What we know:
By secondary structure, the chain is mostly helical. Helices cover 64% and strands 5% of the residues.
Amino acid sequence: MNKQLATRIMSWHIDNGGFCNGPADYQAHALRLLHEATELCLACGATPGQIQGVGANECAKHASRHSPGEIDFDSIGEEIADVAILLGVLSTYTNNPIVSHVDTKLDVLLNRQWDADEHGVLWRRRDEEPAL
């Protein structure tokens, strides 16, 4: 990701009340990412059962190495890299260039209203959600 786009992303986040005050907030930001990753899996045709199976396997693998709720500072960067690399691979194979899609999506996000939770994670205002 280029520096200009990264700056634009963080400006959107901070301007809408987002923050991260350290380790206590990392979990909440990572779980927010999981929401979006789950939507991506579903958009690519994964079933809920497949998603749950992968989640259960990863949780079991992690539990064999770490205490519940423990932050693995040594692994955060490596896992972020894995996510970025695999997102790049999927982006290429599906012909969906990351930078142009992120830039376009930011235009959409800038026109929405956001609420930050107690960890600085942004969530779309409930009164803006489409009725089901």
